[in-house]
C-alpha cells in the first residue's frame, strides 16, 4: 500500500452512520491510512466526527433544518459556512465524499475552505434517473471543482463522462476484497447448494434468481438455495417461493456477518445473483458479495451488468447471461449442479482473478494514491 501522505488529515463523508449494505464505505474508513475524521448524517453531514452537530448554533441549526426538510433547498449558505469552518478548524487536508450527491452538496464548502475534494460514486448515484434529475446540475458544478471523481466499473466511468465530468478527472477503481477473510473452500466436495447474498431490491432481482433455481430443483430435488439479506422485496420473494413450492428448498437467512456468510460458502456449489437495471435506471457498481464469493473460490452465475462484467470472466471464473434471461441462468446453474469438478476449476480461477486484480491492498492502495495525488495538486491532479 502507498505510504506517501501518511500524515494527511482526511475527512470522509459517510451519509449513513450504520448500514450493513455499505461494506465498501466501511473498508475505506477502516483501511485507508492517514488521520481520518468521519462526518455523517445525510449527503450533507449533520454530525461531526465526535457526534456533535456540525452547526453548533441552535438557531442556525433550526434554520438549516427548515431550509432542508421543509423548503427542500439544496444551496444553504449557513451549512456551507459551518462545514467550511469545520474543515479549517480540524485542519483537513482533503475530503473524500462517499456518493455523488454528497460530493455535489459539499463542493461549495470545500471551495470556501480551500480543501481539495475527491468524489467516490458507488452505483445508483451515477444511474438512477430521479437522483440525476435532482442533482444533475449540482453534479456538473462539483466536477469543475473536484480533484478526482472515482467510478467502480467501466460502465460507471462512461456514465460519469456522459453526465459532464471531464474524462481526465474520471478514475476507475473497483472495490476490493479481504483475501484473508475469505479463503478458498472445497467446492469439489460441495452439495448442490447455491448461495445469494444481496439486498432484496429491484436491481438485485431476487425473483429472477428464484425462478431460475426453480428449474434446477425440478432436475435435482436435493438442491437448495440460500438467500442472505433483507430489503423491500423480501416478503414478495418468500411468497414467490411458496407459490413455486420451494418453501423447504430456499432458506431466507436474513442479514448475516461476513463470518456467517463464509460458513455458508463452505457448503456451496456456486454463487448466484441476477442483477438488472431497475425501472428508474438504478444500477450496480461492483457487488461486494460477488468479489467475496470469488475470493472463497466459488464460481458465479450472474448477469452482464455494470462491474459484474469485469469481476466475473465468462466461462473462466463463472458464467454470465443477459439481464432477464432466466432460462440461460437456469441452464448454467444446472451445468454446475451436475459437475462439481467444473465448479471447482472455475472457482480456482475466480480466486486467482481476485488475487491479481481485486485485493484490498491493491484497491485501497490505489484509492490512497488518488487521494494523495489530489491533495497535492487539487483541481489539477489529473491526468
CATH architecture assignment of the largest domain: 3-Layer(aba) Sandwich
Sheet-strand content, in percent, reads: 5-15%
Structural class by helix and strand composition: alpha/beta
How much helicity do the residues have? Answer: 40-55%
Report the CATH C-level class of the largest domain.
Answer: Alpha Beta
Biggest sheet architecture:
6 strands, parallel
Query: What is the count of DSSP helices, taking H or I runs of 4+ residues?
Result: 15
> In total, how many beta strands?
12
CATH superfamily of the largest domain: Glycogen Phosphorylase B
Rg, rounded, reads 22 Å
Q: How many distinct domains? A: 2
Major sheet: order of its strands?
A: 2-1-3-4-5-6
**N to C succession of SSEs:** EHEHHEHEHHEHEEHEHEHEHEHEHHH
Extract low-pLDDT stretches: none
Kindly, what is the distance between the CA atoms of the first and last residues, rounded to a whole number of angstroms?
Answer: 21 Å
Q: Label the overall shape.
A: elongated
Arithmetic mean of pLDDT: 94
Instruction: Enter the CATH topology name of the largest domain.
Output: Rossmann fold
GO molecular function, one term: glycosyltransferase activity
Domain Glycosyltransferase subfamily 4-like N-terminal: 80-179
Pfam family, one: Glyco_transf_4
Domain Glycosyl transferase family: 193-351
Amino acid at each position: 500500500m502507498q505510504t506517501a501522505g501518511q500524515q494527511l488529515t482526511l475527512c470522509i463523508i459517510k451519509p449513513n452512520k450504520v448500514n450493513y449494505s455499505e461494506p465498501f464505505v466501511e473498508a475505506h474508513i477502516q483501511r485507508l491510512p492517514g488521520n481520518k475524521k468521519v462526518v455523517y448524517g445525510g449527503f450533507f453531514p449533520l454530525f461531526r466526527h465526535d457526534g456533535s452537530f456540525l452547526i453548533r448554533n441552535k438557531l442556525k441549526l433550526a434554520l438549516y433544518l427548515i431550509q432542508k426538510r421543509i423548503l427542500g433547498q439544496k444551496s444553504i449558505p449557513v451549512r456551507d459556512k459551518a462545514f467550511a469552518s469545520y474543515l479549517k478548524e480540524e485542519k483537513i487536508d482533503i475530503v473524500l465524499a462517499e456518493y455523488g450527491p454528497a460530493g455535489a452538496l459539499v463542493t461549495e464548502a470545500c471551495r470556501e475552505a480551500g480543501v481539495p475534494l475527491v468524489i467516490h460514486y458507488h452505483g445508483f448515484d451515477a444511474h438512477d434517473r430521479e437522483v440525476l434529475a435532482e442533482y444533475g446540475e449540482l453534479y456538473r458544478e462539483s466536477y469543475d471543482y473536484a480533484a478526482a471523481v472515482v467510478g467502480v466499473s467501466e460502465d460507471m466511468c462512461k456514465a460519469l463522462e456522459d453526465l459532464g465530468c471531464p474524462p481526465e478527472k474520471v478514475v476507475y477503481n473497483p472495490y476490493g476484497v479481504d483475501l484473508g477473510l475469505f479463503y478458498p473452500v472445497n467446492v469439489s466436495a460441495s452439495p448442490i447448494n447455491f448461495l445469494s447474498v444481496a439486498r432484496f431490491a429491484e436491481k438485485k432481482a431476487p425473483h429472477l434468481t428464484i425462478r431460475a433455481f426453480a428449474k434446477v430443483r425440478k432436475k435435482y430435488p436435493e438442491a437448495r438455495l440460500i438467500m442472505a439479506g433483507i430489503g423491500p422485496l423480501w416478503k414478495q420473494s418468500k411468497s414467490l417461493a411458496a407459490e413455486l413450492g420451494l418453501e423447504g428448498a430456499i432458506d431466507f437467512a436474513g442479514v448475516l456477518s461476513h463470518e456467517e456468510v463464509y460458513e455458508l460458502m463452505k457448503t456451496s456449489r456456486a454463487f448466484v445473483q441476477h442483477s438488472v437495471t431497475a425501472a428508474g435506471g438504478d444500477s450496480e457498481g461492483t457487488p461486494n458479495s460477488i468479489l467475496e464469493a470469488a475470493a472463497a473460490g466459488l464460481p458465479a452465475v450472474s448477469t452482464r451488468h455494470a462491474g459484474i462484467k469485469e469481476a466475473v470472466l465468462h466461462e473462466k471464473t463463472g458464467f454470465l447471461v443477459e439481464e432477464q434471461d432466466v432460462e440461460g441462468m437456469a441452464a448454467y446453474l444446472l451445468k454446475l449442479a451436475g459437475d462439481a469438478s467444473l465448479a471447482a476449476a472455475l472457482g480456482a480461477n475466480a480466486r486467482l482473478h481476485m488475487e491479481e486484480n481485486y485485493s484490498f491492498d491493491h484497491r485501497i492502495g490505489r484509492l490512497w494514491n488518488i487521494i494523495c495525488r489530489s491533495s497535492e495538486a487539487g483541481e489539477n491532479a489529473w491526468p
